[in-house]
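Q: My labmate handed me this sequence with no annotations at all. I'd like to see what the chain might look like in three dimensions before we decide whether it's worth expressing. Could you predict it?
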Amino acid sequence: MKKIAISAMAAACCLMLFTGMGWAAKYQYVTIGTGGVTGVYYPTGGAIAKMVNKKKKLYKIRATVESTGGSVFNVNAIMAGDLEFGVVQSDRGYQAYNGMADWKDKGKQSKVRSVFSIHPETITLIASTESGIKTCDDLKGKRVAVGNPGSGTRKNSEDALSTCGLGFDDLGAAEGLKAAEGSKMLQDGRIDAYFYTVGHPNGSIKEAVAGRVKVQFVSFTNTTDVLNKFSYYANAKIPVGQYPGAMNDGDVPTFGVKATFLTSSDVSEDVVYAITKEVFDNFDDFKKLHPAYAVLTKESMLEGLSAPFHDGAMKYFKEAGLK
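A: Here is what I predict for the chain of 323 residues:
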């Protein structure tokens, strides 16, 4: 009798196991790599995941979001199969696809695929007024946070410094901090300035502007050479009006890139199609996510990309008459 009971229990456990496995097998799980939680990448990834998960029964897809170290991390994780999607600066996507910069030794990341582009991101330098930094030339000998290794900000800060003939070695200290950490470090007096390539307005920068230490944005105007050298850059302005308290008289000239949504050619066409469709079919709601999206049009989200379109994205764009 005891053996029968044990056998029945074992059978029930097996049934529960296989039933659970069957439920899990119904869904394909995808992860979206973003950036720091105070930037625009994280809420962007969260919104895309929410759109898809609302229709999980239709698409059989469950999407999750991961806060990561940024663009380089996201590309490498996508190539390794640890992420299915990632928000990546257009310059970093270009470098990865062409085997440049951080991918010089690895070679071309030929499986990188574009899904769509998102908002413009400006190379932003925030300095304390106490530091005396008013122009790029004033950075020599100063303590500057240039972005953590693996972030888009780090390479952008290097290019920004080159516009005035400076490099990391010319700084008093080139701190490898995450951009979102710059606000506190600046207010604590531990750095003189920090770089952040980001869409505006940004929460971390608002914190820096609202602190005890007065701050200002630093302009970059000698951009002709860097724009000619790198096609993914374009002139831009920092909208100072979005940061009450900043010690600037008007919008600050600089340059920047675009945020892009990338994947791998190994990710299925059905999954990429579903995500693309949900974002574009809910375009008005997507635009409301952040003030940086106010300038978006469906057409502009197909521009500024640095790798070929994924077949799943292209399928939707053709159906929607966008291609």
